[in-house]
């Protein structure tokens, strides 16, 4: 209905006023239906064409409403020949029952029951959803839970993340102490705490997120790995041969350690001559 309203306003210069009047009258009938017993509900009907503002017969909003309905509900409306705008809106309200017992229970339960967030982005989304539930409870005229019960919900959302953020913990602790939050919580201080938690989540978003696991930790190639090569590389076929490997230390294949290193060249692995590790280190250092 929120998405359809701007589209109907473009039909004519008075279409918005007609639509708002239609929704208000239909909502009043729905509230009457919602508060009635099952027998009385059978006699509650949507506003008729005669009850609606006159002079708007050329407005064609049925196609917009029918297009927005789920297929099963649209098929039911067509089979019952209920194609008036007020009839469609009244049917939608009866099916989804905004402000009914189910929505009230879910909304009030969401104000006291939350789950710890694993990331700051998830925490920001959960905190905004908690605020939306609080606003919806006020719209429904429901009695919100006691502040002592509600305060645990925002705290729980940020509980994991605050353990690794000492600066945010300090700021929140200072606020809680100054507002006597832990001893005398009120509805106003609960909202203030919610705003502080949301601000901390948005401040830390992107800077304290866990590193991308797909990238992995950068591998550090040691000097030994550079000489010996990766374990997945094959062993040089000229290693330990009579004349050895001509590439020497620049060879891309493995030059594994000699079990009898004193009989082979340290650099190329040749058996015809030898160069020990000490002389190689001195030559590398310019000695």
Features:
single chain; 287 residues; mainly alpha; 15 helices; disordered C terminus
Can you give a write-up of this model?
This protein has 287 residues and is mostly helical. The protein folds into three domains: 4-96, no CATH class; 101-204, no CATH class; 223-287, no CATH class. Helix content is 52%, strand content 0%. It contains 15 helices and no strands. The longest helix is centred in the middle third of the chain and has 21 residues, at 120-140. The chain is elongated and about 115 Å long.
Q: Give the low-pLDDT segments.
A: 208-230, 277-287
Mean of the pLDDT scores?
A: 78
Choose one word for the global shape: elongated
What Rg is obtained from the alpha carbons, in whole angstroms?
37 Å
The helix content is 40-55%
What's the SSE pattern? HHHHHHHHHHHHHHH
Beta-strand segment tally: 0
Distance between the termini: 85 Å
Class of secondary structure makeup:
mainly alpha
Strand content: under 5%
Structural domains: how many? 3
Largest sheet: none
Number of helices: 15
How would the blueprint of this fold be written?
Elements: H1 4-9, H2 15-34, H3 38-41, H4 62-68, H5 71-79, H6 85-96, H7 101-110, H8 120-140, H9 147-150, H10 152-157, H11 159-162, H12 166-178, H13 187-204, H14 223-228, H15 277-284
């Amino acid at each position: 209905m929120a998405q359809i309203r701007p589209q109907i306003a473009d039909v004519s210069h008075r279409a918005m006023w007609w639509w708002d009047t239609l929704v208000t009258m239909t909502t009043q009938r729905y509230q009457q239906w919602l508060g009635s017993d099952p027998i009385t509900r059978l006699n509650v009907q949507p506003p008729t064409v005669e009850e609606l503002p006159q002079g708007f017969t050329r407005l064609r909003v049925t196609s917009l409403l029918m297009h927005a309905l789920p297929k099963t509900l649209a098929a039911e409306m067509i089979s019952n020949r209920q194609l008036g705008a007020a009839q469609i809106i009244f049917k939608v309200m009866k099916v989804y029952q905004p402000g009914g017992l189910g929505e009230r229970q879910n909304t009030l339960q969401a104000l006291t029951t939350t789950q710890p967030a694993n990331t700051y982005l998830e925490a920001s989304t959960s905190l905004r959803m908690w605020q939306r539930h609080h606003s919806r409870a006020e719209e429904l005229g429901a009695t919100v839970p006691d502040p002592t019960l509600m305060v645990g919900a925002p705290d729980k959302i940020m509980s994991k993340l605050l353990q690794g953020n000492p600066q945010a913990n300090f700021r929140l602790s200072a606020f809680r102490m100054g507002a006597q939050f832990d001893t005398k919580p009120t509805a106003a201080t609960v909202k203030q705490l919610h705003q502080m938690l949301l601000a901390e989540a948005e401040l830390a978003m992107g800077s304290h997120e866990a590193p991308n696991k797909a990238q992995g930790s950068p591998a550090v190639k040691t000097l030994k790995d550079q000489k010996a090569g990766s374990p997945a590389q094959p062993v040089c076929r000229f290693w330990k041969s009579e004349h050895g490997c001509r590439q020497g230390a620049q060879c891309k294949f493995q030059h594994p350690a000699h079990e009898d290193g004193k009989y082979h060249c340290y650099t190329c692995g040749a058996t015809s001559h030898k160069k020990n590790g000490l002389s190689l280190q001195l030559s590398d250092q310019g000695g």
